[in-house]
User: What shape does this take?
Amino acid sequence: MSRITLSCIKADVGGLVGHGEVHPEMLERSRELLGESDLLIDFHVTRVGDDINFVMTHREGVDDPGIHGLCWDTFKKVTLVAQKYKLYGAGQDLLVDAFSGNVRGLGPGVCEMEFDERPSEPVIVFMADKTEPGAWNLPLYKIFADPFNTPGLVIDNKMHAGFDFIVHDLKKNEQIKLSCPEEIYDLLMFIGAPHAYVIKDIVSRELDDIAATATTTKLSMIAGRYVGKDDPSLIVRCQSGLPAVGEVLEPFATPHLVGGWMRGSHCGPLMPCTVEDARPSRLDGPPRVIALGFQIAEGKLIGPRDMFQDSVWDKAREMAREMAYIMRRQGPFEPHRLSLEEMEYTTMPQIMKRLAERWEAIPEPGETARELIASGRAASTGDGGDID
Ligand code: F6R
Ligand code: MG
Ligand code: MG
Assistant: This one.
């Protein structure tokens, strides 16, 4: 067995057209640049919507400055392609000018794990657009803690002991380990609020080995202003004491509602689709997820297989399309529009400031408008004198 690192690093560095997808030349340039590196054992470049994802294998470990620097430089150079064609939002996820050793906190999304390559090492890399890292909470719970999704939790000796979930509190920048199945109710209390708490890692208790890892950065929190939803990625190892490939894909058969979509401020279905179809267009969405399967052999990425290509997923796509119609009926009303604190775009502070003087006390029972004015609790801008 040999130690291997699987990294998925992604960024949106420009869209064709608007925020819908990327230019093929950006992918070609990425392949050319990553191909020149002698740090990588293997790599695969793909995209979901307007996000470019680098799936890479190497022996440098996680958080390696060389690997992160390679990705940063590549995204910078790919931005030049986006700029050449005046693509939309060129370089939008590269939030600083200078690289400082690690792309975490600088804009790109990162998930990576180091492990001993097993005799056979099947992995699935999920990548989503127009949503947020908390979008993985529900499927990860189903895969690793719900026996209705994952029969192996009940009938595979190596899975019966359950899994540890590492959950991040995005606001406080803290993490907690919760062990399942014993603590599933505690876990659900947190991860049921996916904009605030997100699952970062999952570890097999029987194998004492990493099973899944997700991107967790929140761009809006890094930048202190809206810079696009930080469309997330997720790596899941499968089989031999970990969930089977089919158990890992199963939650996506019934699409769930996630935050994101138009202006990162709406709730909509996460639609499983092929790489080919991962080009959002309806109200910039609905949110998409792709799944690429690889077998890792001495670090080489054998594949990918486009896991949602099978026509069995057509029904899930149809359900997601239907859910999109249902949510859209709500227009600017919650829960289609996200709650005030979850929206990535807002005009609320400006509106509040402009209308501040026009708010007044609700009259007490029997109190007339004239009495309200006399009490000094009426809005200061309206004259109100002739109302009663
Ligand atoms: C959501 C997204 C898009 C944009 C929208 C407005 O993640 O990328 O829905 O938010 O197209 O974009 P701007 O503000 O760039 O005009
Ligand atoms: Mg974009
Ligand atoms: Mg995107």
